[in-house]
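Tokens as discussed.
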């Protein structure tokens, strides 16, 4: 089976898929799309939504569907977990956490090598419709950091050493994919336990956040 992944480097839903490929040890072709490229994803799936996985039989563009599809041996037990009450509760926690993280990280993501002048302006315009001016997000940074720290304090209580488990699983991929983007925010600092947790996940998933950009610098 040949896999081609169309993705954004900053996107936590894209990171989920990259981390799953790494954890399962499956090779794939990586294509990082400019954020202002509307044509490629629309031609592939009819809408501008990433990640998109192109494989021998077609395309998929929902992160959990992609993860489940490539996990042929059901190592992560995604079908059993994703329709459980536990999963729904976790997605609620993750959505709240992710919303604050995005408000913190977006003004910094746009200055990483993933973006050029055009895609930066496109991203900023699109995201400010929902979140307000990035300058205002920066002004509210202390409040966002306080909220994230409170949420992470609760999450750290669930690390055993992985999320509510002694063994690594899909919840860890989903959680780490959101948290990883915070490393770009210079004013934010992870607690030691969360930082060490993320490094464990990184090693297990053979994951390098900016790996796909090294050839562009």
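Sequence:
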């Amino acid at each position: 089976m040949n896999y081609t992944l169309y993705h954004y480097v900053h996107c936590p839903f894209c990171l989920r898929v990259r981390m799953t490929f790494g954890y399962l040890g499956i090779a794939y072709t990586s294509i990082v799309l400019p954020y202002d490229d509307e044509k490629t994803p629309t031609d592939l799936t009819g809408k501008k939504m990433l990640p998109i996985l192109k494989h021998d039989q077609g395309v998929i563009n929902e992160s959990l569907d992609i993860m489940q599809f490539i996990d042929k041996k059901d190592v992560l037990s995604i079908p059993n977990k994703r329709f459980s009450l536990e999963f729904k509760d976790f997605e609620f926690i993750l959505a709240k956490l992710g919303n604050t993280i995005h408000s913190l990280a977006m003004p910094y993501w746009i200055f990483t090598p993933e973006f050029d002048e055009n895609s930066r302006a496109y991203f900023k315009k699109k995201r400010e419709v929902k979140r307000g001016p990035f300058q205002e997000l920066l002004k509210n940074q202390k409040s966002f950091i306080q909220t994230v720290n409170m949420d992470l304090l609760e999450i750290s209580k669930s690390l055993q050493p992985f999320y509510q488990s002694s063994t690594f699983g899909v919840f860890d991929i989903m959680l780490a994919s959101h948290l990883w983007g915070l490393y770009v925010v210079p004013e934010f600092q992870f607690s030691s336990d969360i930082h060490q947790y993320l490094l464990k996940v990184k090693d297990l998933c053979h994951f390098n956040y900016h790996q796909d950009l090294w050839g562009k610098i």
